[in-house]
Write a structure and sequence with these properties.
The structure holds two protein chains of two kinds. Chain A is an alpha/beta fold. In chain A, the strands form two sheets. Chain A has a nine-stranded mixed β-sheet, sandwiched between helices. A two-stranded antiparallel ribbon of chain A has the order 2-3. Chain A starts with a strand and ends with a helix. Chain B is globular, with a radius of gyration of 21 Å. The model of chain B has no long low-confidence stretch (mean pLDDT 95). Chain B starts with 8 loop residues before the first helix and ends with a helix. Chain B is built from 14 helices and ten strands. In chain B, helix 10 runs antiparallel to helix 11 and helix 11 packs antiparallel against helix 12. The chains are: A alpha/beta, B alpha+beta. Chains A and B meet through helix 2 and helix 5 of A and helix 1 of B.
């Protein structure tokens, strides 16, 4: 089974972000990390590839930097990576991103595409479904478990508010996985060393047949307002009732 | 991060893996293990699987070959667990194996390295004796040759991983008095005539099993002699250089953790109606702490870089151990002071750091011995 996994390099969430004063885009440091949520998709892909003697190709759109984030995923065991790094893609909206990823996936060939549900830095949460549409394959979303059915179809447990649905599709198909779907393996020392000789193809927009157009600009950025002081409920023996009423008012119970 | 002169992208990837592993599998359990005075043996195997345990050892014996800074990364990240004892026991192979790797025969390497590097067996170093720690040349455990065996008699103490090690690299007297009569023997735990104490109760390093070892007509195969007979002293002294670097690195991380805890605490905790961070007396104290951490770390890295180049750094690494442990003495002391009563409570990290730190200016050669070494070289 040929598996493509959409992964993203993001600035390390543990270090402070910097915004470009003119464009308001996040300044991309040379050192980026693999988006933590992508580790789950990579792990699912590796397990399925191991079961089917298949291959795992990472597909990404981001400034390459020193490729540390991509190398983390290669060190976990993926076979190769394709990264689309093009200055004209800066500030792309989700549809452009989806076109680029779909183009790169199409170019590589695939039976299964795996993605996280949303990125940690962008949070649009719509790119995987757009990719599926562009590739003209079904999309199975929010998988908390992924397995192969007897006939080679992909079967998932789709997380719902009440529990889960079992959904199945023949390949080719796209699946999005939730965090916690599997326990991702560590990039081991050996894996990190082996990753150095794995192929990483760097492509431009033209290679994936996309001509980007600027569809959005950021007008202004405002700091998050400081949190307002909470309301203190004095407990005169009836404090619980007041708290219950407050919680009902904000519709959390 | 970003000491680009010392750490490459490869180092940072290993650091990331080590940090993830420590965060996921050590930190959630570390308080429990500290109180229990031990940690699961399985942790050695897990560390080996990830490639952290045997960093710096050849792949043919199951290690993860890498330069000295790869080892620095592993030591630093394990030290970030905040349990000096766990780091000491998990890392005891770094003082037990180097003499075997450097002076052992191929047969000995095959016998004593792979099962330790895979985490199945635990290795420890045994030099210090109840009658004297710093005076290595005066050690009194004897090994007398009878045919194909040595008959070993004596005792060792303060041995890290002492309670559950499977093999010990032991300094013994095979010849006359002084440093020219010392050899290294690998003694396995199941050897007849070998026994060990219960874990010694210590001020700090609680998660580490520290023991006294007894050799009572212990019969050790001659095939376990590492290097030529009576040439052990040089191997021991050489081994100390790396151990002293390791202790300096651990001192730096101990101090750094204490400083970080303080920096977070002074913004939260209020006194007399304002955060502690607003008091100049504490602001300046924190600057003193941060300065020592920074200077010590940079100097230690420089020494490591020169050691990696093969330069003689006996003077410099001794200075690094003196400086870094004095810095961590200061920083951990002040950290408890800043935390006040809470800093004296076990549930606060600075309390453990303060206790764990105390051994660093003693183990691997005391500050006083370090000063003698430096004095001999500069006077």
């Amino acid at each position: 089974m040929r598996i493509a996994v959409c992964v993203k390099q993001i600035p390390d969430p543990a270090t402070p972000y910097e915004l470009d004063p003119d464009s308001h885009y996040v300044v991309r440091p040379n050192d980026q990390v693999l988006d933590d949520t992508d580790r789950y998709g990579v792990e699912v892909a590796l397990q399925l590839a191991e079961a089917t003697e298949g291959s795992v190709t990472l597909v990404s759109m981001s400034p390459s930097g020193n490729l540390q984030g991509i190398r983390q995923a290669l060190a976990m065991g993926a076979d190769k990576a394709v990264i689309v790094d093009d200055e004209s893609l800066r500030g792309s909206d989700s549809l452009t991103t989806a076109k680029v990823l779909a183009g790169a996936i199409q170019r590589e060939g695939f039976d299964l595409v795996i993605a996280g549900t949303e990125s940690t830095d962008g949070y649009t949460g719509v790119v995987p479904q757009q990719v599926a549409e562009l590739l003209d394959v079904p999309s199975l979303s929010f998988a908390k478990k992924v397995e192969l059915a007897e006939d080679g179809a992909v079967r998932i447990e789709r997380q719902t508010a009440a529990g889960y649905d079992v959904v199945q599709s023949a390949v080719p198909v796209l699946v999005t996985v939730t965090s916690g779907v599997v326990e991702p393996r560590y990039p081991t020392f050996k894996g990190i060393m082996q990753a150095k000789s794995k192929p990483v193809d760097t492509l431009g927009c033209g290679d994936v047949g996309v001509s980007p157009t600027t569809t959005q600009t950021i007008q202004a950025v405002e700091p998050v307002p400081a949190r307002e002081a909470g309301e203190i409920v004095e407990d005169d023996g009836e404090g619980y009732a007041k708290i219950v009423a407050m919680l009902e008012q904000v519709k959390v119970i | 991060m970003g000491f680009d002169r010392y750490f490459t992208d490869d180092h940072e990837l290993i650091r990331r893996t080590a940090r993830q592993w420590v965060a996921a599998e050590i930190l959630p359990n570390v308080d429990e293990w500290e109180e229990a005075g031990t940690f699961p043996r399985d942790l050695y195997r897990r560390a080996a699987e990830i490639g952290i345990l045997g960093v710096g050892y050849p792949a043919e014996y199951g290690g993860s070959p890498g330069d000295l800074f790869m080892q620095v990364v592993a030591w630093e990240e394990i030290a970030r667990s905040g349990s000096g004892g766990l780091g000491a026991s998990l890392g005891s192979l770094h003082i037990a194996l180097p003499p075997i790797l450097k002076f052992g025969t191929d047969e000995q390497k095959e016998r004593f390295l792979p099962s330790v590097l895979s985490g199945e067996r635990i290795a420890a170093l045994a030099v210090t004796e109840p009658g004297g720690g710093s005076d290595v040349a005066g050690l009194s455990t004897t090994a007398v040759r009878y045919g194909d065996e040595y008959l070993v008699n004596g005792a060792k103490t303060f041995i890290t991983s002492g309670c559950r090690a499977d093999q010990y690299t032991v300094a013994v007297r095979t010849g006359g008095e002084g440093h020219s009569g010392i050899s290294l023997l690998v003694i396995e735990a199941e050897t007849p005539g070998f026994s060990r104490s219960e874990p010694l109760k210590k001020m700090g390093w609680w998660a580490s099993d520290t023991a006294e070892l007894f050799f009572d007509d212990c019969r050790v195969p001659r095939a376990n002699l590492i290097g030529p007979e009576n040439m052990g002293f040089i191997a021991i002294m050489e081994n100390f250089q790396k151990e002293r670097l390791q202790m300096s690195i651990v001192a730096n991380i101990t101090a750094e953790l204490a400083l970080q805890a303080c920096l977070a605490y002074v913004t939260e905790r209020e006194a007399f109606g304002r955060p502690l961070a607003g008091f100049q007396v504490l602001r300046h104290k924190l600057v003193d702490m941060a300065t020592k951490v920074e200077v010590s770390r940079e100097y230690t890295y420089r020494v490591a870089a020169r050691m990696a180049e093969g330069e003689d750094q006996v003077t410099e690494v001794s200075m690094a151990k003196i400086f870094s442990t004095e810095a961590s003495d200061f920083v951990t002391h002040e950290a408890v002071q800043i935390f006040g009563g809470y800093g004296y409570m076990r549930e606060y990290l600075v309390e453990r750091l303060y206790r764990d730190n105390r051994i660093l200016s003693i183990g691997g050669g005391t500050t006083e011995i370090m000063k003698e070494i430096v004095a001999k070289r500069i006077l």
